[in-house]
Amino acid sequence: MKTPIEDPMAILQKGYSVTIVLVVLTFGASTRWLLYTEQAPSAWLNFALCGLVGIITAYAFVWITKYYTDYKHEPLRSLALASSTGHGTNNIAGVSLGLESTALPVLVISVSIVSAYWLGQTSGLVDESGIPTGGLFGMAVATMGMLSTTAYVLTMDMFGPIADNAGGIVEMSQQPESVREITDVLDAVGNTTKATTKGFAIGSAAIASFLSVSACMDEVATFAQEPFKQVDIAIPEVFVGGLLGSMLIFLFSAWACAAVGKTSQEVVNEVRRQFIERPGIMEYKEKPDYGRCVAIVGL
């Protein structure tokens, strides 16, 4: 850090942005060099766009994870606020936040799968019967694009343990409080970067799983010598539909938990207010306003 007040996460984000730019340039050149074919002269451009889809997906996953785990953003601040009204509301808010955080990643993965498959299918590559065959290969290229920033993402992951150990050393060596404040900021950023790596890994695994299922079904069809079409989740629309359907369960559950948590916080705050304004309640000298609590719950 240049100064104690500079945001470490902002520095890491700048580094990741530079990595993205370099990867886009080198990925495009590599695609032109390795994937050019006279059968479809413009196919390499489609596959370069598939790689760009993967790179954008990786960046989106990093941003989404940062949004849900960084203390500067609303989700974590709302969770901290829920902690002020007790353990119960904290647990409800945490479960709600965790369930809600599945929505955006699933949407991003769904869009990337459909986009990469479509770009591959329209690349101009066809088999002997004239059927487009580039869809799955386009998704494979998108997966490579997403994994092309792995080195920097893993470097961000290593930031967490280093900052954590630095904080422990500062505490054990009884350094001034000002030093501990700096390491606390670094530790908080380290927690975010560790979560970012997990989100990145899950996102890349989701796309890779689609390719694995498709390859497995091809092997089954070859072994059985007949098409395997009973439940073909290798079709992008079917796979994406499964992802979206699963995501809706988490999202609606998150909204339900969020509503319960918010109402619980209001009830706790109302009870505390009555205890402060009517101290006789604890001594059974005054009656609490039950109607107010019922009204809050009934809204």
UniProtKB/TrEMBL annotation:
The lineage of its organism: Eukaryota, Viridiplantae, Streptophyta, Embryophyta, Tracheophyta. Its main location: membrane. InterPro entries: PPase-energised_H-pump. It comes from Acer negundo. It is an enzyme of class 7 (translocase). PANTHER family: K(+)-INSENSITIVE PYROPHOSPHATE-ENERGIZED PROTON PUMP. The keyword Metal-binding does not apply. Pfam families: H_PPase. The keyword Ribosomal protein does not apply. Keywords: Ion transport, Magnesium, Membrane, Translocase, Transmembrane, Transmembrane helix, Transport. It is a multi-pass membrane protein. Signal peptide: none annotated. This is H(+)-exporting diphosphatase. It is found in: Endomembrane system. Its EC number is 7.1.3.1. GO terms for molecular function: diphosphate hydrolysis-driven proton transmembrane transporter activity; inorganic diphosphate phosphatase activity. GO terms for cellular component: endomembrane system; membrane. The chain crosses the membrane at residues 16-36, 43-64, 102-119, 131-154, 238-260.
